[in-house]
C-alpha cells in the first residue's frame, strides 16, 4: 500500500480517490489555489460540491497552502489540474517532487509552439519543471473515456495509462486497478494524448448538430442523430489526420482514446452544451455569456490546434482541407462567424 | 429526371422516396410479399405505418403482385429488402432487371460461406441472380449513418454509396443528392459493407452496458456512459480487425461507415433495446419473447460472423482473442449464457 497525493480537487482528480481508497492506499487530496471553496466544503461536510458525493473514508484533504505537507513522502503524485494549470503545477508542485516518484496526470490538452509544432502536456510539463528534476520524474497521463461522476459511483470504466517507462506504467496500473476501474497501458504518449485533447474539440462539433436541429424547430421528430453521427465521424477522421501529423500511433483512432473518449464526451456536459448554443446560431460571445464562469477546455484546444495548422501547412506537414470541422469551429470561436456547417468539405479522402 | 423503382416498402426503402421525389424523379415504391399491410395503408391514407409520415406527392405505390409493372422502364432499382430478403430479391426481382440498369441496396449484412469466408450482400446477391444477368447489372450499396425517420424528415444525413463502377456511382450520386442528403462515394465495397453489417452487432454490445447499469439499480446517478463508451471502443477495434481479415479498406474504421454508423445505431431502436434486455440479465429466449415479431438483423449478423471466426482461425486468417465482445454476444444469443462482460479480454493489442 502506498501514499498517493492528488494535486487538484476538481472532479476528475477527486474521482480517483475512489479506486485508490478502495485499494487501501493512503490518499491525500490537495487543492490548488483555485480549489479553496471545494476544500472548505470537503473539510466541513466531506461532500464534493460538484460531484455531489461524500469522498471515501480515510482520504485526507489539504489546502493549497498545505501542499508541501501533502506531498511529503508521496510515492505517486496525481496531477488533477486542468490544462490551464500545467504551468502552475510544473513550477510550484515541481519544487516538491522527488526523483523516482512518478506523476500521472488527468489533464487534457496540447500546447502549440511558435512554429506550429504540437506537444503533449506531459512534455509541456517536463519543460517547465525545475531543471534538476526534468529527467528525474516519470510523467504519465490518463486517456480514454471516463466521466468523473461515474468513476466516483464505481461504474465500470476503461482507461489508458500512457508513459514512456513500461515498469512505471505496470506499477501505476497495479496501484489504481479495481474491479470497476480497468486500465490498459500504452507507451504511445503522443497518440493517446492527441486523442484525449481533440475529443473536446470534436464533442463541441457534435454539439453543433444538436443545437442546429433544436433551432430548426419541432416537426414532430425529436430525434436528430444522423447529423450528429456525421460530425462524430468527421471528428474521428480529423483525429486520425492529426495522429498522422504528430506521429501518434494510428491504432489510437479505433479504441478507448479516439472514438471511445469522443463518445463519452458527447454526453459529458459543458463541452456539448457550448456546441448546442453555437449550433442554435448564437455567437461565441453570446454563448460564453450564458456559460460565464465555466472552464472551457474545448475552446482552448480548438483554438490552439487551429492556430497551429496553417503553420504546419506552410511547412508542408499538414493540409488545411483535412480539417474542415475544426477550422469551422475555430471561425465560430475566434472570428465572429455563426454556425454554417461546410458539409461538402467533409470526408475529404485520398 | 429518371424513373426509380424502390423494391421493399420498409422504413429505409420508403425513406429514400424523399430525396428522390425532391429531385423530381418518377418514384415507384413496390412492396414485397411481406409488405402487404404497409402497401394497403399507403394506398388508403398515403401514411407509412412505421414512419408515421405521409409519403411525398407523386410517389406511386405498387403491391408485390404488381412488381413487373413497377419495374418496367426503371432506370435505377433500389433494393429496400432486409438481409432476410436477399435471396427473394435476387431470384424474383432479378427476373425483371435489365442489363445496364444499376441496383443500389440499403440491405446490411454479411453472408458466411461453409469455409468461413465472409461475403458482402452485393456479392451474395450477384451469385443468386439469373445467370445471364450476373455480369450485366451493377450492384451497389448504401452505408453510413442514416436513421430512416430522420431522412424522411429531411434531416442532414451523410452516407456512402459503394460499388465497383465509378461512373455508375457518380450517376447514382447525382440522382439521390439533395441539400440534406449528402453522398460520398467508395469503390471499397468490402470495407463499407463490413462496417455497415457489424455496427448492428456492436450496437447490441453497447446496449448490454445500458441494461447492466439499469439492472444494478439506482444509486442516485442516472448516467452510465463510461461502460457504454468502453464497449463502443471495443466494437470499433473489432470492426478494424474484421476489416483486416476481409481485406476491407482500413480507412473505413474512422469515418461514416465505422464509428459514424455505430454511433447512430446506438440510438436507433430495436438493436439497442435487445442489448438492454440481455444486459439486464435476461436470456436471449426471454428477451426474444419480449420482442416477438420484430426483425432482429443484429442477431443474424453476430451469429454468422461468430460462426465464421473459428473456421477462419483454423485457416490462420483470424485470431479468436481479437473478438471477445462479438464472441460473448454470440454465447448469449446462441449458447444460453447470460451477460458477464469479459473486461480483461478487451483491447487485446499487438
From TrEMBL, chains A, B:
Return the EC number: 1.1.1.94
Give all residue intervals belonging to the Glycerol-3-phosphate dehydrogenase NAD-dependent C-terminal domain. Answer: 188-339
- What positions does UniProt annotate as the active site of this protein? 199 (proton acceptor)
Q: Which UniProt keywords apply?
A: Lipid biosynthesis, Lipid metabolism, NAD, Oxidoreductase, Phospholipid biosynthesis, Phospholipid metabolism
Tell me which Gene Ontology terms the entry assigns under biological process: carbohydrate metabolic process; glycerol-3-phosphate catabolic process; phospholipid biosynthetic process
InterPro entries (alphabetical) = 6-PGluconate_DH-like_C_sf, 6PGD_dom2, G3P_DH_NAD-dep, G3P_DH_NAD-dep_C, G3P_DH_NAD-dep_N, NAD(P)-bd_dom_sf
Name recorded for this polypeptide: Glycerol-3-phosphate dehydrogenase
Q: What is the phylogenetic placement of the source species in the record?
A: Bacteria, Bacillati, Chloroflexota, Anaerolineae, Anaerolineales
